[in-house]
Amino acid sequence: MGGEQRHHHGVPDPRRAVRERLLETADRLFYAEGIHAVGIDRVIVESGVAKSTMYVHFRTKEDLVAEYLRRRSDTTRAGDAGGGGAGPGA
After folding, report:
1. How confident is the model over 44-79, as pLDDT tens digits?
2. Which CATH number applies to 1-62?
């Protein structure tokens, strides 16, 4: 559940959890305020992740933004593939 990656013994992978927290925080802030309006320091503070840890997962803000956009695109495509949404022409 929750999309957590687990080690082979069912224990959550802590590195994956940190990456997910960064991405969830970035998603919330970028969506609400815009990518250019939100600095990387704000994402770091609001996610509760150390700056050095953030840079282990994403070398630059651009890397974080690229993953954010990739996930948004995947989510949109998955929703479109379901056929149940009220898109254009519906």
Report:
1. 999 999 999 999 999 999 999 999 999 999 888 888
2. 1.10.10.60
